Automatic annotation (TrEMBL):
<feature type="transmembrane region" description="Helical">
    <location>
        <begin position="1018"/>
        <end position="1039"/>
    </location>
</feature>
<feature type="transmembrane region" description="Helical">
    <location>
        <begin position="854"/>
        <end position="875"/>
    </location>
</feature>
<dbReference type="InterPro" id="IPR036412">
    <property type="entry name" value="HAD-like_sf"/>
</dbReference>
<dbReference type="InterPro" id="IPR018303">
    <property type="entry name" value="ATPase_P-typ_P_site"/>
</dbReference>
<keyword id="KW-1278">Translocase</keyword>
<feature type="domain" description="Calcium-transporting P-type ATPase N-terminal autoinhibitory">
    <location>
        <begin position="6"/>
        <end position="48"/>
    </location>
</feature>
<dbReference type="GO" id="GO:0005388">
    <property type="term" value="F:P-type calcium transporter activity"/>
</dbReference>
<keyword id="KW-0472">Membrane</keyword>
<dbReference type="GO" id="GO:0005516">
    <property type="term" value="F:calmodulin binding"/>
</dbReference>
<dbReference type="InterPro" id="IPR006408">
    <property type="entry name" value="P-type_ATPase_IIB"/>
</dbReference>
<dbReference type="Pfam" id="PF00689">
    <property type="entry name" value="Cation_ATPase_C"/>
</dbReference>
<protein>
    <recommendedName>
        <fullName>Calcium-transporting ATPase</fullName>
        <ecNumber>7.2.2.10</ecNumber>
    </recommendedName>
</protein>
<dbReference type="Pfam" id="PF00690">
    <property type="entry name" value="Cation_ATPase_N"/>
</dbReference>
<feature type="transmembrane region" description="Helical">
    <location>
        <begin position="353"/>
        <end position="374"/>
    </location>
</feature>
<dbReference type="GO" id="GO:0005524">
    <property type="term" value="F:ATP binding"/>
</dbReference>
<comment type="function">
    <text>Catalyzes the hydrolysis of ATP coupled with the transport of calcium.</text>
</comment>
<dbReference type="Pfam" id="PF00122">
    <property type="entry name" value="E1-E2_ATPase"/>
</dbReference>
Length: 1041
């Protein structure tokens, strides 16, 4: 079976459309395609989205060419053909949404200039590029009415009745419905109302029960996915309104809003560049074009859905929601759906195999039953005469055959994966993990390696400067620190200028007139340090003019600015990784505030200080400056040599509580944890030892050394690497790729920066940080860790293992029911007392056990299937919807992390599962076969109701076998199956509901379900035989495989 299932193999992410189409074609027997393929990708919609991207690319290319050609002619252009619509004019605006859309989407510089440029657009939108929109509710409502909201069209939430209708599309249920209708008509015609309607109404009631239970389950799943989808789309941006910076949801943005963007942000709506530095935009998500676009005052167009690859800027929103190309693309993409998961596809393969076997058995069963009827009529000489009773008998045979297909084609098998994943995703949300792609849930359970960031994942990301070496003076920083008074005035000024101007953060005044620091934790720590030294952020920013900014990125590991000073002259400031910035310095400020050459003992002192800080697990940064000559051009790069070192700061970022225990748990679970960080190697080693990641047998390496190794060296080195410091994004990507391809590991990777996107995409599971992560990182990730905590990653792994194991339990349970139901009906229909098969299955000596009933034994023992259509439909519901609810929603336990990981090539249907399935199937089949053969004699079931009572006993026994087997399936290898069972409310509810309905069907619905009330003795026998399956399961678990 596993070799056949390889045909259904798809990747956990990034599968080609061809691979997705191939497995669909392999699904030969699908009862209800709409339901089976509901949670799979809509490939036609994806082709539509790809065509839209190509169209966008062509539109933008033409627009850019036209705007370039028109650029030289734009001076003096006037708006001769544009008229402001009356409704817009009445609202107080001088430009309409369609005109704004045509300016930005068309990259129309000519129109933009005619409207007075960016400032003119701002005036016509009644906004300020400095203070943003006012927060007056009426004004915002009016703006929303005229220009629309920043939301995209989403597929309508289907009602419960839609899922009822969808469940009714099942081909086999439709055929059974026709059978029920014919049975109803013929029965009423022959026996009258209501006696003749019982069989037909019984099938109808069973169909409706199956349909409503299925629809309820599917509807609940759709609600869960809708809730999770809303969580995925929560994106906040920095906006200025009423002169205050604040965080706001992108869905609350309106034209005229002033938005602040930085590296890794997603452009939230179409708009225009107001101010900023070195802005590069990645438009690939919209156009498929991978080359970044420079956005400047001469090319100010920013399109919704694109990503900021470098730089930072301020933009004005012009067009929102479905008026943007991104809005239209998102509406199409949302209909494209999520990729199906490998388990979903594999279980479609299992369903196909079982379906083909079931169809074969159904056809043979029907043929044998019809043949027996025809032979009987031939022997009676009535083959030319057909009565209504015989027509009903023929119809019943057909209904049984169709019901065998209903039971045999486990349509719920692939959907059980979806149910389990939906359940796990909802629970993981409570555990601070947002799953963006379904496949990540199950893949995480197979992971063998975690490559984790240090900052914010293993540490708290609450940073403070605790040590410094300014002007060669090493000092601990506390509230009582005297550093300010000890520094020369000139050095203090340079330090504060460096901190407050060379930063990606800001100190702003909020609406409560209190200082608030915006920026990354590192920037926040430095700005707090500057404020503690008596610095004034706004004053420092006004004292000089920024003329160039090179934002920090993890490749250069530094950032820099160039200032135009108020007395003239230019000064560059840089900060970044201590050893890198220090290497670019040739001078240093000494304790007297004098600039002296950096050599000899001074250089050694700084290097020792860096190592000392790093060994104390502090993050070290070096701050430096240089005076530039007047010939410097803002279009050129900031120099990288000739700086004067101001000092070193040591930033404390404490290890998160519980990380050490989580790392130990991973090690026990067979998962290797590696730290990959951009920090100093000594800092990384100190933190790694504190977390329990770096052991005596492991090694720590710097990215620069790693990237110089040859493949033969990497093959020996990579298994030992536990820490990689000063790593670049390319190093991280290389490590992940090597682990996946060369060492066949299933790799989970954490990341938060824009440059982490390639590694997140390459990994089997990309984990982005919800707090510190950029939108680019989140977009590339499969799971977002909402609290940035390593312990949450371990929880995700635990849930992943739980999903995988739960599906295995359900498959084991369903395969057992499938095999027994097929064999029982097939042998019961085909096997008669005169058949030689009897002698091969039961010893001849057993015929003498009941000599007084010899005639009974020689008569046909089994003339028809003991399980009727109604009973089989009930069994189908037990094993399908109810079984999935019971077994596929088991919560995880700590024992899961004591098992070895499945890895990349683990067999889904394991030898352990086959052992349990075949053992239980054999027991159940032999018991039911024995009851068929000897039940009447053993229990003295004579008279006209003897056959009906026996069949009821068999049905009851069969159901109780499944109930007790359901309990046994909670553990595939362990003896104790009751542990935690009573804490699982869903499982207990399903078992209780099944038991209640079984009693009602047997005792109260005999006319419709072809049953008769059983005596207490027969109930105890049914329960006893079912219960015996549990000790059988214990014995089976002791058999090694």
């Amino acid at each position: 079976m596993e070799s056949y299932l390889n045909e259904f193999d798809v990747k956990s992410k990034g599968s080609s459309e061809e691979a997705l189409e191939r497995w669909r074609k392999l699904c030969g027997i699908v009862k209800n395609p709409r339901r089976r393929f509901r949670f799979t990708a809509n490939i036609s919609k994806r082709y539509e989205a790809a065509a839209m991207r190509r169209s966008n690319q062509e539109k933008l290319r033409v627009a850019v060419l036209v705007s370039k050609a028109a650029f030289q002619f734009i001076s003096g252009v006037t708006l001769s053909d544009y008229t402001v619509p009356e409704e817009v004019k009445a609202a107080g605006y001088q430009i309409c949404p369609d005109e704004l859309s045509s300016v930005v989407e068309g990259h129309d510089l000519k129109k933009l200039n005619a409207h007075g440029g960016v400032k003119g657009i701002a005036e016509k939108l009644k906004t300020s590029t400095e203070d943003g929109l006012t927060t007056d509710h009426d004004a915002l409502s009016c703006r929303e009415r005229i220009f629309g909201i920043n939301k995209f069209a989403e597929p309508r939430l289907q009602s419960f009745w839609f899922y009822v209708w969808e469940a009714l599309q099942d081909t086999t249920l439709m055929i059974l419905g026709v059978c029920a209708f014919v049975s109803l008509m013929v029965g009423i015609a022959m026996e009258g109302w209501p006696a003749g309607s019982h069989d037909g109404l019984g099938i109808v009631a069973s169909i409706l029960l199956v349909v409503f239970v299925t629809a309820t389950s599917d509807y609940r799943q759709s609600l869960q996915f809708r809730d999770l989808d809303k969580e995925k789309k929560k994106i906040a941006v920095q906006v200025t309104r009423n002169g205050y910076r604040q965080k706001m949801s992108i869905y609350d943005l309106l034209p005229g809003d002033i938005v602040h963007l930085s590296v890794g942000d997603q452009v939230p709506a179409d708009g225009l560049f107001v101010s900023g530095f070195s802005v590069q935009i990645d438009e690939s998500s919209l156009t498929g074009e991978s080359e970044p676009v420079m956005v400047t005052a001469n090319n100010p167009f920013l399109l919704s859905g694109t990503k900021v690859q470098d730089g930072s800027c301020k933009m004005i929103i012009t067009t929102v929601g479905m008026r943007t190309q991104w809005g239209k693309l998102m509406a199409t993409l949302s209909e494209g759906g999520d990729d199906e998961t490998p388990l979903q596809v594999k279980l479609n393969g299992v369903a196909t195999i079982i379906g083909k076997i079931g169809l074969f058995f159904a056809v043979v069963t029907f043929a044998v039953l019809v043949n027996r009827l025809l032979v009987r009529k031939w022997l009676e000489g009535t083959h030319m005469l057909w009565t209504g009773v015989e027509a009903l008998e023929l119809l019943e045979y057909f209904a049984v055959a169709v019901t065998i297909v209903v039971v045999a084609v486990p349509e719920g098998l692939p959907l059980a994966v979806t149910l389990s994943l939906a359940f796990a995703m909802k629970k993981m949300m409570n555990d601070k993990a947002l799953v963006r792609h379904l496949a990540a849930c199950e893949t995480m359970g197979s992971s063998t390696t975690f490559c984790s960031d240090k900052t914010g994942t293993l540490t708290t990301n609450r940073m403070t400067v605790v040590k410094s070496c300014i002007a060669m003076n090493v000092k601990e920083i506390t509230k009582e620190s005297t550093l300010r008074s000890e520094l020369p005035e000139s050095t203090l000024k340079l330090l504060l200028q460096s901190i407050f101007t060379n930063t990606g953060g800001e100190v702003v005044t909020n609406d409560k007139d209190k200082h608030e620091i915006l920026g990354t934790p590192t920037e926040t720590a430095l700005l707090e340090f500057g404020l503690s030294l008596g610095g004034d952020f706004p004053e420092e920013r006004r004292a000089s003019k920024l003329i160039k900014v090179e934002p920090f990125n993890s490749t250069k590991k530094r950032m820099g600015v160039v200032l135009e000073l108020h007395h003239g002259g230019l000064r560059a400031h840089t900060k970044g990784a201590s050893e890198i910035v220090l290497a670019s310095c040739d001078k240093v400020i000494n304790s007297n505030g004098e600039v002296v050459p950096l050599e000899g003992s001074l250089l050694e002192h700084l290097k020792v200080t860096i190592n000392q800080f790093a060994n104390e697990a502090l993050r070290t940064l070096c701050l430096a400056y240089m005076e530039l000559e007047s010939g410097f051009s803002p279009n050129g790069p900031i120099p990288t040599e000739g700086y004067t070192c101001i000092g070193i700061v040591g930033i404390k970022d404490p290890v998160r509580p519980g990380v050490e225990e989580s790392v130990a748990l991973c090690r026990a679970a067979g998962i290797t944890v590696r730290m990959v960080t951009g920090d100093n190697i000594n800092t990384a080693k100190a933190i790694a030892r504190e977390c329990g990641i770096l052991t005596d047998s492991g090694i720590a390496i710097e990215g620069s050394d790693f990237r110089e190794k040859k493949q033969e060296e990497l093959d020996k080195l990579i298994p030992k690497i536990q820490v990689m410091a000063r790593s670049s994004p390319l190093d991280k990507h290389t490590l992940v790729k090597q682990l996946r391809t060369t060492f066949n590991e299933v790799v989970a990777v954490t990341g938060d920066g824009t440059n982490d996107a390639p590694a997140l995409h390459e990994a089997d599971i990309g984990l982005a940080m919800g707090i510190a992560g950029t939108e680019v990182a989140k977009e590339s990730a499969d799971v977002i860790i909402l609290d940035d905590n390593f312990s949450t990653i371990v929880t995700v792994a635990k849930w992943g293992r739980s999903v995988y194991l739960n599906i295995q339990k359900f498959v084991q349970f369903q395969l057992t029911v499938n095999i027994v139901a097929l064999l029982v009906n097939f042998f019961s229909a085909c096997w008669t007392g005169k058949n030689a098969c009897l002698l091969s299955l039961l010893s001849i000596s057993e015929l003498y056990l009941f000599p007084h009933d010899a005639n009974l034994m020689m008569a046909p023992i089994i003339g028809s299937a003991p399980l009727t259509a109604v009973q089989l439909l009930w069994v189908n519901m037990i094993m399908d919807t109810l079984g999935a609810l019971a077994l596929a929603t088991e919560p995880p336990n700590d024992n899961l992390m004591k098992r070895s990981p499945v890895g990349r090539h683990g067999h889904f249907i394991s030898n352990v599962m086959w052992r349990n399935v075949l053992g239980q199937s054999l027991y159940q089949f032999m018991v039911i076969l024995f009851l068929q053969a000897y039940g009447k004699v053993m229990f003295g079931l004579r008279g006209p109701d003897g056959e009906l009572t026996l069949n009821t006993l068999i049905f009851n026994t069969f159901v109780f076998c499944q109930l007790f087997n359901e309990v046994s399936c909670r553990e595939m290898e362990k003896i104790n199956v009751f542990k935690g069972m009573f804490n699982n409310g869903v499982f207990i509810s399903v078992i209780g509901t099944t038991l209640l309905f079984q009693v009602i069907i047997v005792e109260c619905l005999g006319t419709f379900a072809s049953t008769t009330p059983l005596s207490s003795d027969l109930w105890l026998i049914s329960i006893g035989i079912g219960f015996m399956g549990m000790p059988i399961a214990v014995i089976l678990k002791m058999i090694p495989v």
